[in-house]
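Give me the fold.
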Amino acid sequence: MTEAAIEKENKEIAQQYKKLLRISYQTLTEDDKKLIRQAFDVAVDAHKDQRRKSGEAYIFHPIAVAKIVASEIGLDATSIAAALLHDVVEDTSYTLEDIRRLFGDTVSRIVDGLTKISNLEHDKDVSLQAENFRKMLLTLNDDVRVIIIKIADRLHNMQTMDSMRTDKQEKIASETLYIYAPLAHRIGLYNIKTELEDLGLKYTEPDVYHEILKKIRESKEEQDKYIDAFTQVIQDSLDREQMQYTIKGRPKSIYSIRRKMKNQNVTFDEVYDKFAVRIIYKSDSANEKFLAWKIYSIVTDHFRPNPTRLRDWISSPKSTGYEALHITVMGPKGRWVEVQIRSERMNEIAEKGYAAHYKYKQGSNQEDGLEEWVNKLQEALESSEVNAVDFVEQFKLNLYSKEIFVFTPQGELKSLPKGATPLDFAFSIHTEVGLRTRGARINGKLVPLSTTLNSGDQVEIITSEKAKPNSNWLDYATTARARAKIKSSLREEKKNIAEEGKAILTRKLRAQKIPFNEKTINELVIFFKLKTSLDLFYRVGVGTIDNQKLKDYAASRSNALVSFFKSKIRKPSPVEDIDREEITAKYDQLVFGRDEEVLDYKLANCCNPIPGDSVFGFITVSEGIKVHKKDCPNAIQLQSNFAYRIIQAKWKDSTQEEFKAVIKLTGIDNIGLVNDVTKEISNNMNVNIRNINFDSQDGIFTGRITVVVKNNSILKKLIEHLKKINGIDKVSRE
């Protein structure tokens, strides 16, 4: 480079630095400016020999990221300094220790978090990529600003991606749409989320992006005219009320127009709400709500509102802190227009997310929403047994999910994702409440735990010391937190049964004069065609492997020759730790309907479901039940055209399969007899009552009880116990 070019570049760098200080959203103190200056000097020195792909000096990148952090996200001086230094440790000779020495613990912690994210291996493999995202989200434990600066870094990379190879552009853009846009959305950075989505589309589907962009530009003039006509109508009324306001038209993002075109299968011209009108008014905090509704009534005096499209986020702000009134009205020329009503404060929060929140909340002792969000997020991260792809999917689900607001019995407001059930509500209050849930009341009425909650419901959870999760709960719970806690509780119970089984097995082997050691366990695992010792102990615990089966094993063992050949044919697999989770696909079986019946079925060729897939049954005319995956290409057509022929289906581990049995009782009717019977059944660990019916006539009673048990031996034991109750004459199985 020539000297003149270098001088020009240095001038530009100095210019950008001054701009950074000028555009900072927060008011910078002298100490803040010193910190930023020092960070700037270190960054300039560290990156002095580096250039970007486009040829410009590398330092422009950290400055640009710091500008996004300072103005668009509005963070503090510490974050601006960390943004300037975000690539220093990774790319230059500076170490983390140097940063700690020069800038203190907070800045070095944030820089360390950012370095960790950058060092994650980038791989095409989805599960590796997902694992990387999980690690990235774990850096939230260090400091939430790590993620926010990472989003700013990603935004600048997306803005300057033109000089990259096409395959690289596509990979970075897909990753952006996959995780960074949802993250920005969840933190309340709507402007950045929109830009990330649009840029993501630009590089993943360039033709579509440019086509929509061209059409938006072509229709801009017409759109401006329309907004003027709309504004003209309400301006006089707003002026009469002496309000200070501005009205802006805002085109919908290219990405959201594309999504509408795709979801509704319509052309660009058929997307009816391609823009929104935003009314931003000045107000002190006391009158903010009152004025919003006043503007609402003025707008609806002139234009008819769509009653199903009112969104009141002023009375109940979103958990991202977003506040506004959204109404859709029938505007001029019979077109629907979305009108967003916000005060200047609400507008800042909508654009800056949490940073504006900090500004307006200074001095208040309310727990900050962002902290609360980070805590919730960390709980989801703790459940490390979920595999990484599921984790990221679950995480995204919770990021993008629409919210509902429900009340506790004391009248507190709780926000939950749309589709949540009383179980999700119970776990959102406290893990213990969730695990002890016995039942639920919605608006005072007893409801099944699978009921979907609606905004405005008042939910009361009934708990019991004896209640504990069962595998059906996983069908009812939708939030990541509830599902993780239920899974770990079920695993815990399984381990307890296995521990019990281990003790029983030790006793039974001793009775057969067989030593309880690793060799025996190996032989038993192979003899019963199992995979792990946990499987073995669990099956003994629930009684699937009973005395007779153990005697068969003992008999086969005594025949040394048979034993020798068996060991030659099947190599014994090493005994596995009792903590290993059971993964025995062999035992998977499909069950159908609410009663989980075992029926004959065929797997559909179009989607070839395998154990573990989400599936449904379709009753065909000539071939019985055909099982399809829920995301099978034919699923939508079958579900919409033949809904009456769809039958619920799910995979179950057949060792946990439970069977229905009807017990018939007769005896002499006496006070407390029913109580004795039900008490006996509920004291039996592995028995649940499905149905109960007692009839008394002339001093004799008959009863029919439907119970659910894991196997015959448990049922026999129960019948023996019932026979011993005073007054019972006969107990038989139907």
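Residues 362-367, 572-586 have pLDDT under 50 and may be disordered.
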